[in-house]
Structure formats: structure tokens, C-alpha cells
Amino acid sequence: MLSQSRYLDNYWRCNNLPNALGYYKLLPKTNCGECGVPTCLAFAMRLAANSAKASDCPYLDKEIQHQLNEQSLPAVKEICLGKGKQEIQVGGETVFYRHEKKFNNPTAICIGISDQESRTTIDHKLQQQGIERLAEQLTTNMVALINDSGKKEPFIELVKHYSTQTVLPVIILSENVETLKEAVTLVQDTNPAIGLVTDKNKEELLELASQYSCGVILSAGNGIEQLGQLVKKAENAGISKILLDCSGTDIFTTISNQVMVRWKAVKEKNRTLGYPIISFPGNYTKNPSEEMLVAGLMLGKYSSIVVTRNNELNLLVPLLVLRQNIYTDPQKPIQVTPQLYSIGKVTEDSPVYMTTNFSLTYFTVSMDIESSNYPGYLLVVDTEGTSVLTAFAADKINAEKIAQAIDDTKLESKVAHRKLIIPGYLSPLSSKIEEKTQWEVLVGPTDSAEISFFLKKQWRNN
Fold first, then answer.
1. Half-sphere exposure in the Cβ direction for 123 (13 Å, CA)
2. Three-state DSSP string of the chain
3. Which backbone phi and psi does 285 adopt, to 5 degrees?
4. Residue 390: partners with Cβ closer than 8 Å, 6 or more residues away
5. Per-residue confidence of the chain (462 residues) as pLDDT tens digits?
6. Domains plus CATH for the chain?
């Protein structure tokens, strides 16, 4: 007979993707409710969603508890870099395909700074860049200080200058071990990462990382097999903050390596390769625009940190937007904050429109209001991120919610009139809204692109 341990190992090997039914088979099926949910199946579903621990079940064998808890850990370990408000988490991923659940910690965009660059350029790169989109701040996250000169003095000066200018998390990159040692002592309180660790310098750099509790970047060098061996050496040295550099001789090889590492970590449960990936798109092109294209490819293929040498906002915006799109929850609509928005220079006579907090709806309507050249208020009602028609069909928008939104935003104190323009699809609710709010309801167009025409025909004649 198989021992429990060997049975569980074989079980998980044959059932690569732990799911609710997989967990359920190993539970006692007593439906005692002592775990906090009424049935064992419900508890299995919580285990599969990582919202419960196997130890919550008092009747599970300790060995099974341990195995289940091990299986519920993220396939890609989460590590932290930096300190305080600027601390970032990378990794912590559980799936290979985004639609299976979601990707968790957004890729950190890291700006590479060379010790051969001018002080003006360095100061510019040390400034965090970003934009606001969909009510979210999209910014760069960290910097990498690179010893391109190969000389100790200019690099140490760069590290010293960094430490006085910013608190962004930092990566220290140098091929010279002695230079790295001195650099690390200057930034050890910032929880940095150092690299690159190769087969040649592994003994010295792993000892340095262990001494100062740094993160390390391990280089694939001759391939994924060698990378796995380096990971084992780093783990044996007591290092837990590990980043994997899967760089190959060309872009295709690098992308293939990154995909293979994630596949082995997630699908094959290879814990040795279950660490965040860092990529260097600048290794393959010196053209800034091309570098951003390569960065986008690497971001889309499992890079947890992308190091780019460019800090120009016009080049970074596509990368920031791509990251935001990839790291949204595919099962949850993107939402904006439900509140009253002023569009243009509003007055007490400005029209008041109403819509839902689905981001695409909000931005479309707000842009059409702005294009009308007629300032107005836009009352955004919380519909859990659904569109107007979907919210109406699911009863996520009604007269009571609209009345509550008017009260919460103190709308009556902002306008002299009592007229509310609602989307055309909500026309069946118009009488109920008037009854509940005591506001006159004007049924607007079904398509916000017709707002200008609507204002000319109805609003200005009222």
C-alpha cells in the first residue's frame, strides 16, 4: 500500500490544477460546520479560492493538512522589495492563463540608470513617472542602478546620489563583486536586490546577499536547467528573495524561457522555478521605441519586473496601460468611483446627467459631455461596475439608488433647477424616479454621442 505522503504526491501529480472537487475528495465529508461553513463542499470551494486554510478543518490528518496548505501556496512565490510606502510586491501568481482566475501583483516597471549618464539624465530618471487612467494612478515603480562603466568610483557616486534623491525600491547591477559589496552597504536599509548571479560568481554574490538580506537576480546563463541549480544553491544559502533572469541570446529564446519557467511553476508544480521573473528588454535593442515593444512582449509573458532604460512618459504610457489591462480582474468590471463629477466650468444652471460606474460608460459619456461644449454635472451611481442596460436588466439601478446618490452628493445644493437627464435605456424608470426624488426627469438619448443634439432640442428649450 502507498503511504499517505506518497498517495498525496501521486494524487497532486495526476491532478495538476487543485480545484474544489479535488480538495473535497480529501475532506472527511462530515458536514460538521466547525470550519465556519455548513458543508465540506463549501469548505473545499473556499480552499480552492485561497480563502481558507486546511487547518480550519479539525478532523483532517496533520499530514493531509500540510499537503493541502502546500498546494494552496502561490505557484510563484511573492517577494517584497523596498521599504515603507514605496514597498512593492512581485510574484504571488497562481495561474498560467489570466482567465483562469486573475493575475495578482502588477509587473513593476523599473527604470535603468547607467553610471555613464549625465547628472541631468540621472535626476530625470530618478523621478517617478505616471498618468491617471480609469481612476487609477499608473506609475513606474523602481530603479535599477547599472555599472556600465565597469569602474567602481562613478558607480558608487551614482548609488550615493540615488540614496539622497528618492525612496523608490532599487536593484544594484554590477559584474564586479567588490563594487557590489560597497554599493550594498550604502543601500542595505532599502531592502534592495543585487545581481546578476551567474555560475561563475555564485559563491561570492550569494554570500553577500545572505549577509545583507538582499534579494538576488539569478541568470539563466546556459539555460533553465542551470537556473534551477542556481535557485537550489540560493535556497540552501537561506535566500528567499529570488528573481529569475531568463535572458537568452535573442528575444524569441528569452520569451520561450519565460513561458517555460511559468509553465513549470504553475502546471508542473516545480517549486524550484516558482519565483518572479525579471527581464531586460534593452539587451536586444538600443532603439527606445523598439525597447518599449520588447518590454510589452515580456510584460505579457510573465515578467514580474521589466527593466527599461527609457523614462520618457510618451514611451512609457503604452506600457503602463498594457499593464493595467493585463492585471485587471477578468471576472470583475473596471469601475470608477460613484460620485458627482463636474465636467467643464459648471454653474448652478448646468444640466445634470446620470449614468453608471462602469468605467467605459463613464469615460464615453464624460467625453461626449465635454465635446458638447456645454458644462454639466455627471451623477455616477454605483451599479457594481455594470453598464446602463445590464444594470437595468439586473435591477442594479433603480429609483431608490438614484435618490440615494442625489442625497449623498448633496446635488440639490449645487444647482438651482431640479432636472435630471437619464439615459434613454432607463426611460421605464422615469416616473418612479420623479416620484422618489421629486426631480423632473428628462429622458436623454440612448447613445451619449447624441448629447449635443439633445441639448439643442430639449435642454435649452426647457
1. 3
2. CCCHHHHHHHHHHHCCCCCHHHHHCCCCCCCCCCCCCCCHHHHHHHHHCCCCCHHHCCCCCHHHHHHHHHHHCCCCCCEEECCHHHCEEECCCCCCCHHHCCCCCCCEEEEEEECCCCHHHHHHHCCCCEEEECCEEEECCEEEEECCCCCHHHHHHHHHHHHHHCCCCEEEECCCHHHHHHHHHHHHHHCCEEEEECCCCHHHHHHHHHHHCCEEEEECCCCHHHHHHHHHHHHHCCCCCEEEECCCCCHHHHHHHHHHHHHHHHCCCCHHHCCCEEECHHHCCCCHHHHHHHHHHHHHCCEEEEEECCCCHHHHHHHHHHHHHHCCCCCCCCECCCCEEEECCCCCCCCEEEEECEHHHHHHHHHHHHHCCCCEEEEEECCCCCCHHHHHHCCCCCHHHHHHHHHHCCHHHCCCCCEEEECHHHHHHHHHHHHHHCCEEEECCCCHHHHHHHHHHHHCCC
3. -160, 150
4. 358, 383, 396
5. 345 444 444 544 444 445 678 788 888 899 999 998 999 988 888 887 777 888 889 888 888 887 777 777 889 999 999 999 899 999 999 999 998 888 999 999 999 999 999 999 999 999 999 998 877 899 999 999 999 999 999 999 999 999 999 889 999 999 999 999 999 999 999 999 999 998 889 999 999 999 999 999 999 877 898 899 999 999 999 999 999 999 999 999 999 999 999 999 999 989 999 999 999 999 999 999 999 999 999 999 999 999 999 999 999 999 999 999 999 988 888 888 999 999 999 999 999 999 999 998 999 999 999 999 999 999 999 999 999 999 999 999 999 999 999 999 999 999 999 999 999 999 999 999 999 999 999 999 999 999 999 998 887 666
6. 4-72 (1.10.15.40), 79-326 (3.20.20.20), 340-459 (3.40.50.11600)
